[in-house]
From TrEMBL:
Organism: Lottiidibacillus patelloidae
Free-text remark on how the cofactor is bound: Binds 2 manganese ions per subunit.
Residues the record lists as binding Mn(2+): H98, D121, H123, D125, D225, D227
Similarity annotation: Belongs to the arginase family.
Lineage of producing organism: Bacteria, Bacillati, Bacillota, Bacilli, Bacillales
Family annotation (CDD domains): Arginase (cd09989)
Protein name (record): Arginase
Length: 298
């Protein structure tokens, strides 16, 4: 029986808006464990990672917000994710802001020769300290995992880089900063912006994504930022961007990923219950997670 380990990361220090630290609670409250158990899976809720607070700005030369706290927290997460994979369980990480992908990928990537990454997001999260318009580390985790950015972030887990540019697929992008666009071109990263999703349809996007990744990767991590979905379906996020993916097409995406059997770890991030409407975004997350683990109507 497939074993899943839920790991909560109540982290809000990678961005400016309070409340996203309550994301893991909101997703649990929306019935995650019960829903997964009904799929005949062995589900273990490992609780929450300890969030480092008040480490002070030891690295004074940087504009990165809460850098020390983000480093310590991601180091904790790196250890937990790695431990779960070593036990033969599937790490399901609940955020928390997207800066936690640094720790998830650090913990996961060392278990595979080539880890693929599906980055389902309105944003590229490919900024570095030099290109970031905000200093928010949640806008940087994909760049960090490629080995670009502050060295203490890049070296979390004691190795770098975690992933290769040719093993990444970004889906749902519609807000990219100048430096991120340049990096995408320079590194040749595969991106399905909303333009391509609309033109091709989600079914083709996922089929192509799996073709592209399955040839060259051993495992695939899904990093799903709920702001990839349209704010109409998922209002409870800190950096909403209109014109997003619908719940309906995201649901199809999860079903197709489930059928492929290729996903080896996942995280669902940026759920902010304070900005949400009656826990709608957390409920959407639970629906997507259930589909990712094989829930079917018939
Ligand atoms: N994980 C996210 N929601 N990221 C949003 C990033 C927004 C913007 N690109 C920044 O760097 O600040
Ligand atoms: Mn985003
Ligand atoms: Mn993101």
């Amino acid at each position: 029986m497939k074993k899943i380990s839920i790991i909560g990361v109540p982290m809000d220090l990678g961005q400016n808006r309070r409340g996203v630290d309550m994301g893991p609670s909101a997703i649990r409250y929306a019935g995650l464990e019960k829903r997964l158990k009904s799929l005949d899976l062995e589900v273990i809720d490992t609780g929450d990672i300890e969030i480092s607070r008040d480490h002070g700005q030891i690295k004074k030369e940087t504009n990165l917000k809460n850098l020390n706290e983000v480093i310590v927290t991601n180091d904790n997460l790196n250890n937990k994710v790695s431990e779960v994979i070593s036990e033969g369980s599937f790490p399901l990480v609940l955020g928390g802001d997207h800066s936690i992908a640094i720790g998830t990928l650090a913990g996961a990537a060392k278990h595979y020769d080539n880890l693929g990454v599906i980055w389902y997001d309105a944003h590229g999260d490919l900024n570095t300290a030099d290109t970031s318009p905000s200093g928010n580390i949640h806008g940087m985790p994909l760049a960090v995992s490629l080995g670009l950015g502050h060295e203490d972030l890049v070296n979390i887990g004691g190795y770098a880089p975690k992933i290769k540019p040719e093993n990444i697929v970004i889906i749902g992008a519609r807000s990219l900063d100048k430096g991120e666009r340049e990096l995408i071109k320079e590194k040749g990263i595969k991106v399905y912006t909303m333009h391509e999703v609309d033109k091709l349809g989600m079914s083709t996007v996922i089929k192509e994504t799996l073709d592209y990744l399955s040839k060259k990767t051993e495992g695939v991590h899904l990093s799903l930022d709920l702001d990839g979905l349209d704010p109409e379906d998922c209002p409870g996020v800190g950096t909403p961007v209109m014109g997003g993916l619908s719940y309906r097409e995201s649901h199809l995406a999860m079903e197709m990923l489930s059928d492929s059997g290729l996903i080896t770890s996942a995280e669902f991030v940026e759920v902010n219950p304070i900005l949400d409407e009656k826990n709608k975004t957390a409920e959407a997350a639970v629906g997507l997670i259930a589909s990712l683990f094989g829930e079917k109507l018939l």
